[in-house]
Every structure is written in C-alpha cells, then in structure tokens.
Amino acid sequence: MAREDSTEFRMGERQERFLTSSWGALLAAAFCCLLWGSAFPCIKIGYALFGIAGTDPASQMLFAGTRFLLAGAMVIVFVSIARRRPLVPKRTDVGAICLLALFQTFGQYAFFYLGLAHAAGTTSSVIEASANFFAILLSALAFRQERLTGRKVAGCLLGFAGVVLINLGGSLGNFSFSFSPDGEGMILLSALCSATSSCLIQRLSKWHDPVLLSGWQFVVGGLGLMAMGAAGGGTLSPTGPNAIALLAYMAFISAAAYSVWSLLLSVNSVSRISVYGFMNPVFGFVLSAVLLGEYQQVDPVRSICALVLVSAGIVVVNRVGARAGSATSAPRSEKH
C-alpha cells in the first residue's frame, strides 16, 4: 500500500541505502544514542538552572513539555525550510500523530516523571533500558512485524546485561533491585510506552512521512505534558541565559535524535535498530561523569565490560538484521 504522504516526501535511494547498511545504521544510531546520553546530565543541570526540585514531578513535566514543544517546532521549521514547503499534516495524518504522541512523548514521560520521585535511580535506569527488549518482543508477538529468534533474544540479553553492569553502584552483593507500583511500576509503564512507540513508528511510516510524525507528535505530546504539569502546580524559574541555552540544546537533542531514529525504523526492522538503544545508558553514564564531575562513580573495568556486552549484543542481533533488515522494513513506494 502506498504511503499517504502529505508532503510528497520520498527518501532517496542513496539515503535509504546508507541507513540500511551496517555502517550507516551504526553511525546514525550511535549519533542518536550519543545525543540521548547527553540528555541524562543535561536534565540534572536543567533542574538546577530552572529551580526544579527532584521531588517536584509537576515542574519536571512542565520542563519536559516545554522541551518537547520546542523540539517539535525545530523539526517543523527546519524541515519546512529544507523542503521549501510547510511541513503541515493532512487530516489523514492527525490520528497517527495523536496515537504516536500518546505513547512516544506524553505516556512515556508522564509515567517516567511520576515514577521517578518514588523509584531508585539505578533501578529506573535498568527498567528504562528494558524498553529496547520490550520493543523487539512487541514487534514480533503483538505487531507481527518480524520473527522472534533465539539470536535476537540473546543479543538483547547481552545488551541488557551491559546496562545492569554499568548501573551497579558497588559489588553485586550490595546491589538491590526494589519495586513499588507507584515508583518502579510507573517506570515500567514508561518503558512499555517507549517500546510501543518504536513499533508504531515502523508501522505508521508505511503510510505517513516519519519526519512529519516525529515533529508534530512532539508538539501534541509536549502540549499535553505542559498542561499536566501546569495543572499540578508546576513552575519554571530560569536563572539566566544559560538556562535558556540548555533548554534549546535539549530540544535539539530530541528533534535531531528522534527524527533520525524514526528514519532508521522506517527502513529497518525494529529488532535491528532497538538493540542500539542499549548504548543510551552507557553514553549517559560516561557523559554524566564528564559533565557533572561524577568521576568517583566510574569504574574503568566495569565500564569497558559493559561496553563489550552492549557491543556484543548489537553484533549478535545485526548478524541477522543486516540480512533481514530490508526484508522486514516498511515497504517503499512508500520506514524508533
């Protein structure tokens, strides 16, 4: 079925070849994960610059909503200029935009911020990383977009093991994994929303421009988060130009990373791309050490072992994905 494309967007053959190649997918996914990884320390810095307490989820959601609204505006303006025509959705795009916004931006981050105040940071990082595993399971078992194989499961387990390892604060014997419905339970729902959004992007991009979906779902989801944060009494108090500059950078993170990730998912299987997501917490851990001065938390041996496990997981999945990616991707006349 041909894509109902309101902007007459067609990915070039050369661009598609790059995004489906092993090195192209790796470079594009690593770019996304590096940006997302930098968001971890930037969020902490942003809370300080905007006077947001760690136990104030309403202000956190207002902050996130503002960031995503700006991200959507960036995508829409930049792509409109690049294509020399407004990136405006058709009526047939509205339902897809709202559905994607419900899971990718509003649901994922509303659950995340509601749960974060009642969940341990280490546990939250591990549960969030499980979204990459959930995406592959949902793609195979719920959305029927690809086959679930032992190699894909093994690759995910390797990547997940790397995330667990990088989050160990001390020895394995001192690591506790707590779970409460209003804390880790909410984080788990956030991870499921994230996983569902990856599958939705892969499916919806058969009929809709993935970049248009990315930009406009940010606007819809961002407005939803802002409304929820404001209704809960959230406030933002920027301390100066540094706060505004940081917010602009965080908007750029979302605009660039999600747009590229959406393009990757539009032409590759969910399993092939989702496994790269295990790089996010590793980048986040390292960049937090650099930007926040948390060097005492970095164990070089543990960090290297975590990177090896994540890399091994990517290689294991992509030994299949490199051959099957184009076969399981969204059809072209026509797709996170």
Oligomer: single chain
The radius of gyration computed from the alpha-carbon positions, rounded to a whole number of angstroms, is 19 Å
Rough outline: globular
Q: Structural class, please?
A: mainly alpha
Largest β sheet strand count, sense and barrel closure: none
What are the secondary-structure elements, in order, as H or E? HHHHHHHHHHHH
Distance between the termini: 21 Å
How many independent structural domains? 1
Spans of at least 5 consecutive residues with low confidence: 1-8, 321-336
Mean pLDDT: 81
Strand content: under 5%
**What count of helical segments does DSSP give?**
12
What is the percent of helical residues? Answer: over 70%
Strand segment count: 0
Provide a descriptive summary of the structure in words:
With 336 residues, the protein is an all-alpha fold. The protein has one domain. The chain is 72% helix and 0% strand. It is built from 12 helices and no strands. The chain has helices spanning 13-20, 22-49, 57-83, 91-116, 121-141, 150-166, 184-204, 210-231, 241-265, 270-274, 279-292, 300-328. The chain is globular and about 50 Å long. The model is unreliable at 1-8 and 321-336 (pLDDT under 50).
